[in-house]
Design brief:
Length: 332
């Protein structure tokens, strides 16, 4: 049974930190708690590799193989085929693997990768990046849990944000207002789909060792992020948040259930042009979410719901508390 782990070989990376492609990627790295702009990157620690994101869209993976760095990048990013281009369909699920050997690093156009990947970032991914920009304690995005040998045989859903709230860990699922997974018919017994998502996540944690695995993994992730920040000269409010959490060790608590943060706005187009018609649609869905009691229904399931009306400029998620999701919706 695979463990949930976060690790990366920092010693090898340190020997290659001045290689052009590595320097170019980390030069674009913007720590949580700060706006990354249009083409700044976020870094997430995985099980043996790092993932770079632009506006929530994965750009490249950096791993260490046989003592040297290796990148995995989607072919369409390497070719500069932006979303909507007539050749887009030719590059479905095709990836280029690039090895970096000191003195023999191939030419890699990092700016092309980033600019192209940014065109594929949808509204929810951009919303997540907006949240990272004001959430200094962000430890991870797009967290995916390994499969458990249970009867479902399915992997628990990804959590959009993992956040250090002091010495504890909280988790957030981010949805745009127009996402139907937030809603359900009050005349039917089924809960909104997002409730089932969170139940599966909590169910994974109910297995023996689940919370301790996650706590240990993110303590290590915080240490790796701190080391990367020092290695590449990064500063910002994330440093203190990561250090506080890393120092907690086994005293850290895993807070359940996750919260749900709802984006009641849509980002401008990639070229910066506002999307007035789309914004009207978002506002209509945001109003119906409250008026038709969808928000209240999620709250009755013990889920903290945080609506965000426009791009946040300050910390907005608040602190999650321990609780539970009932199997049935409580009576009003």
């Amino acid at each position: 049974m695979p463990l949930f782990e976060r690790k990366f070989d920092l010693d090898v990376l340190r020997n290659y930190r001045d290689v052009a492609v590595i320097k170019a990627l980390f030069d674009r790295w913007v720590l949580p708690g700060e706006d990354a702009g249009t083409h700044g990157l976020r870094v997430a620690v995985r099980n043996g590799y790092l993932n770079f994101y632009v506006k929530g869209q994965s750009v490249a993976k950096l791993s260490i193989r046989s003592g040297s760095p290796r990148f995995e990048v989607h072919d369409k990013y390497v070719a500069g085929v932006a979303k909507g281009h007539e050749d887009e369909s030719k590059y479905a699920q095709k990836y280029t693997s690039l090895s970096v050997v000191q003195g023999k690093a191939p030419m890699m156009d990092v700016a092309k990768w980033v600019h192209t990947a940014e065109t594929y970032a949808g509204d929810e991914k951009r919303f997540v990046d907006d949240l990272v920009a004001v959430t200094a304690g962000t430890l991870d995005l797009e967290m995916a849990l390994p499969a458990r040998p249970d009867t479902s045989g399915r992997v628990a859903p990804r959590m959009d944000l993992v956040v250090a709230q002091g010495q504890d860990i909280g988790f957030w699922e981010a949805k745009c207002a127009v996402n139907g997974e937030l809603r359900s018919d009050h005349n039917k017994p089924a809960a909104p789909h997002v409730v089932d998502q969170l139940r599966k996540y909590v169910g994974w944690m109910d297995h023996d060792g689940g919370p301790s695995e996650v706590r240990s993994a993110y303590s290590e992730a915080a240490r790796i992020l701190l080391a990367l920040a020092e290695m590449f000269g990064k500063t910002g409010p994330a440093i203190a948040a990561w250090q506080t959490f890393a120092d907690a060790g086994d005293a850290a608590s895993v807070i359940l259930p996750p919260g749900v943060v709802v984006g009641n706005y849509c980002s401008p187009r990639a070229d910066g042009v506002p999307r007035s018609t789309e914004m009207e649609r978002y506002l209509a869905h945001a109003n119906s979410f409250v008026q038709n009691e969808h928000e209240a229904r999620l709250s009755r399931f013990g889920i903290k719901v945080v609506p965000i009306g426009c791009k946040p400029t300050a910390s907005c998620l608040g602190v999650l508390d321990q609780g539970r999701i009932p199997e049935l919706e409580p009576r009003r």
